[in-house]
Fold this sequence. Notes:
Oligomer: single chain
Mean pLDDT: 96
Helix content: 25-40%
Number of domains: 2
Radius of gyration: 22 Å
Bound molecules: pyridoxal-5'-phosphate
Amino acid sequence: MITTIQEVKRKFDVEDVRKDFPILTRLVNGKSLVYLDNAATSQKPQTVIDALTQYYTFDNANIHRGLYFLSELATEQYESARLKVKEFINAMSVSEIVFVRGATEAINLVASSLCRAKHFKDGDEVIISHMEHHANIVPWQLLGDRKNINLKVIPINDAGELDMDAFEKLFCEKTKLVSVVHISNALGTINPVKKIIEIAHAKKIPVLIDGAQAIPHHKVDVQELDADFYVFSGHKVFGPTGIGVLYGKTEFLEMMPPYQGGGDMIRTVTFEKTTFDDIPRKFEAGTPNIAGGIALGAAIDYVMQFDRPELAEYENELLVYGTEKLSQIEGLRIIGTAKEKASVISFVIDGIHPYDIGTIIDTDGIAIRTGHHCTQPIMQRFNLPATARASFAFYNTKEEIDNLVLGIHKVKKMFA
Length: 416
Ligand code: PLP
């Protein structure tokens, strides 16, 4: 039986929710873990861990090909997870949901397959933004082996917001795709993707949205956005690593050739010729991450038991509180002050390298990310080698932010 997403919403209570995430009870360096690196990966609720354990303990079999009980059970669970994803992002059809390893693989798939579909000619252009993750820069550059694609970059202002006037001016007859990030992992900026899509579509240009950071925080409706492609990773939305989603409109997926060849994506094979399965299977060569797909379904069930705007509102409270507290620290500068922001705070402190901040506060069990966050061009834009970044999920608390602030004061004292 295929299960659908639950309708009755659970009341959000942070202390209650924290009990669902076993890792939050652990000690690090003798202190309670304060996990503030959710933009890198989020923690997993027990239900997701249970889904993985259940599959490997009792239900393990390969999917799609077996005519015996376990194989049919595994297939049903995997395909039911696909249906959950379809409902989660409101795709038109379940066949528009391609399971991949993550956002990175999804973008590589689109780049490679569009190129093979002859969507690009030498000298054509893809519009991206200055705040892209490397996952939305490098795949386009790799096409250089086959087609010489030029990247046109939407500039940003000092707050970390896209210059939309400049964006409109980037289009020309060589523009073949717009590929932009929904929420920046480095700055937290929420980009006006609906507007971006409208502008591009008015010029008949398709749009890919990198939703890796948006999906964990906001309800995404791909039909309402009218995105042609939307990609995300399971591990950032409380699911396991090694599973992610490429959403593509049917008209594009139908016209695109397979990305990889192998078992499970074919209809017939002879030594002379192969015919391919329908979408999405033609993009899913080989044995997939079955347990990961099933557990991603459990992660979606977990998130969907809540009223999502209520979660987003709580995360915004954390953002406002954290911004206020961190801004009060002398010598600390927040990088990324867009009006529309998700719960990500990147910062630098005069005279202290971000690596030192991260390493010292780790001794108190506080986990933040330091570095270029796989967004080197945005670091160059702000003339910085790196930032420290605290990113919050709905299981974080104001007390944890207070601990971060105490930790930063300790770092400053050491460097005084
Ligand atoms: N895009 C954005 C905005 C990200 O933040 C990330 C990961 O940090 C990615 C893409 C790549 O995700 P993954 O490494 O899960 O494929």
